[in-house]
Design goal:
Oligomer: heterodimer
Helix content of chain A: 10-25%
Low-confidence stretches of chain A: 1-20
Strand content of chain A: 35-45%
Mean pLDDT of chain A: 81
Distance between the termini of chain B: 38 Å
Number of strands of chain A: 9
Shape of chain B: elongated
Structural class of chain A: alpha+beta
Shape of chain A: globular
Largest sheet of chain A: 6 strands, mixed
Mean pLDDT of chain B: 84
Largest sheet of chain B: 7 strands, mixed
Distance between the termini of chain A: 40 Å
Helix content of chain B: 40-55%
Structural class of chain B: alpha+beta
Number of helices of chain B: 14
Strand order of the largest sheet of chain A: 4-5-2-1-7-8
Order of helices and strands of chain A: HEEHHEEEEHEEE
Largest interface: A-B, 30 and 40 residues
């Protein structure tokens, strides 16, 4: 509580910004690093991926040539197919929903000048109790990805595994 | 089979030496497995300091900084988060429960945490263990305090005692909150987590003891007595951090993202398990040091056995020579000694495991209360492999006296010495 008085000047300073409702915050963006978030509950597995445009297609600006447009389409299709993620076969998982959204490849450039591919997936697994591992082959699908940070939330709690140097195996704590 | 009975008979002739050798092996196996078990359990206990909490929310800093300060009460203070933002998080539809944490005051070196009674129901540790009370109950009155097991043990406090909190981290020059003493309403059972060294009071109590304070000091002329403070508006203005539980784990990343992108205030939401893992990664060298110690312990134990076997071999020259004279081949003599060391190792391993199990069963509560270590009575996953290594090393160690005997058994024992 001793820091309490310190808070007030910041609050006052924050007020005019709040009035304009202009948010000036930027998330991290690391080239060569993709992040994968996996949450498991009951028979559902939700997966979110964020892939820097640099690693997905090699550029982060609106596609100017047909070749660049083709690259964006190819990356979108590849993410949409979700072949890069292989849950343990014994868990009997099926992909129920996949949604891929490229950011920053449109007309207006995003704040910070970066572009990403975000994708979210919804799996249904019949034998979730047998989901003891996953294969995350993002680095082989997009060779410029050097590091994949996988965050997992299961009944056993949350954990993080970092995949580097050709490793694709992710252990799922039961 | 004949060889086995021969070995056993030979061993029976040297009871004292054999017992000592078995004891040496047993001790090294006990230490080896003990260190392994402590290592695994320390890691396990650490990784589950906070369980059952989906998100830990604080001011924007870093996951490890936030975790260290709000849960372990060490490291640099992060900014506070405003009560308004806390209420906004609380109101999110995905959020099932929230527990606020407010730090800043202390009592004789122990940190005081302002929270709500929900802390005692929602804070879980280990494999989903809830907090239990050795005596008393959670705080009910404004000036009630709940103390951890370590606080009770070191300061000899019990339910009903009155304590005075210090402002800030205490020390002789800092003012105390002597005008508003607290009564201990409960003592939390040992957990092996930072809760053991914490004094928990209600958020309103934190507010009440600071009600006549401005800019870090008491205002003369504005003093409010303990009873007057009860009638004032004690809604907190800020908290340090909050534990957040969700209705469904599936929404964890979405809620985390929403809190991290919260426009009005820079906030940080972390997954406790991920932050704990990161922190363990930083201090994990200690784990490797323990591994090295285990290895050395094993080497010392094996050298002890080898010394005893070689020493005994000197006394058994005659025995070996007689065996050879009766027609035993040099190979038989060799196998005899390898079998002997293997048998001694197996006996030592059994004794060591029994000793370890007995010790953990007996010392479990004591270690938890005194060292905050939770030692599991079930074997650590690596123990089987370690035992196999011990067995292999034990048999291998037998090869050395075996080889010596192989070389010299006949000539050595039958030579006439003057």
């Amino acid at each position: 509580m001793k820091a309490l008085p310190l808070v007030f000047p910041f609050l006052l300073a924050a007020l005019p910004i709040a009035a304009h409702a202009e948010a000036r915050q930027l998330g991290p963006h690391v080239h060569g690093q993709a992040s994968v978030n996996i949450a498991v509950e009951a028979s559902t597995m939700d997966v979110q991926v964020s892939l820097p445009g640099h690693d997905a297609v090699g550029f982060e600006h609106p596609p100017g040539t047909p070749a660049e447009q083709a690259a964006v389409d190819k990356a979108t299709a590849s993410l949409n197919a979700a072949a890069w993620l292989v849950p343990a076969p014994a868990a009997d998982c099926t992909l129920a929903l996949a949604r891929v959204s490229p950011h920053g490849f449109g007309g207006a450039t995003e704040a910070g000048g970066h572009a990403d591919f975000d994708a979210s997936y919804h799996f249904t697994c019949r034998r979730m109790d047998r989901l003891d591992q996953l294969d995350v082959r993002l680095a082989s699908a997009f060779p410029s990805v050097a590091k994949v940070v996988v965050s997992l939330i299961t009944a056993a709690g949350s954990s993080q595994q970092v995949l580097e140097g050709g490793v694709s195996h992710v252990g799922v704590p039961q | 089979m004949k060889l086995l009975s021969l070995t056993l008979k030979s061993l029976r002739q040297r009871k004292a030496g054999v017992a000592l050798t078995v004891f040496t092996v047993a001790l090294s196996v006990f230490l080896l497995l003990g260190v392994e078990r402590v290592r695994t359990d320390a890691r396990q206990g650490f990784a589950s300091t906070v369980s059952g909490t989906d998100l830990l929310v604080g001011a924007r800093s870093g996951p490890v900084t936030l975790l260290l300060y709000s849960i372990f009460h060490v490291g640099e203070a992060t900014n506070n988060i405003t009560w308004k933002s806390y209420q906004a998080i609380r109101a999110m539809p995905e959020v099932a429960w929230t527990v606020p944490l407010s730090l800043g005051d202390s009592h004789r070196g122990f940190r005081v945490t302002g929270t709500t009674a929900d802390f005692f129901t929602h804070y879980h540790y280990g494999r989903g263990n809830a907090l239990a009370f050795t005596s008393g109950k959670p705080f009910a009155d404004l000036y009630d305090a709940v103390i951890g097991a370590e606080v009770a043990r070191q300061l000899h406090y019990k339910v009903g005692d009155r304590i005075v909190l210090s402002h800030g981290l205490g020390g002789p020059n800092l003012a105390s909150h002597a005008d508003k003493p607290f009564r201990i309403s409960g003592v939390v059972a040992p957990t092996g987590t930072p809760v053991d060294a914490t004094i928990a009071v209600s958020l309103e109590a934190i507010e009440a003891i600071h009600v006549d304070w401005r800019s870090g000091m008491r205002l003369p002329g504005l003093e409010a007595s303990a009873d007057e403070a009860r009638r004032m508006d004690l809604t907190p203005k800020a908290i340090t951090a909050a534990l957040v539980g969700l209705h469904s784990r599936l929404s964890a990343f979405a809620v985390q993202g929403a809190i991290n992108d919260y426009d009005e205030e820079p906030l940080l939401a972390v997954l406790p398990g991920v932050a704990l893992g990161e922190l363990w990664h930083l201090i994990g060298t200690a784990e490797n040091a323990l591994r090295v110690v285990s290895g050395m312990v094993l080497l010392v134990g094996m050298s002890g056995m080898l010394t005893a076997l070689l020493g005994m071999l000197g006394e058994r020259r005659r025995e070996m020579a007689v065996l050879r004279a009766l027609g035993a081949s040099t190979r038989t003599v060799f196998s005899l000694l390898v079998m002997e060391s293997t048998l001694l190792t197996i006996a030592g391993m059994l004794a060591g495991v029994i000793l370890l199990d007995a010790t953990t069963a007996l010392a479990h509560d004591y270690l938890l209360a005194v060292a905050g270590l939770v030692i599991d009575e079930t074997p650590a996953p690596g123990e089987g492999v370690l035992l196999l290594v011990v067995l292999a090393l034990g048999s291998l160690a037998g090869c050395i006296p075996g080889w010596v005997a192989y070389r010299r058994s006949l000539a050595d024992g039958l030579q006439v010495r003057l």
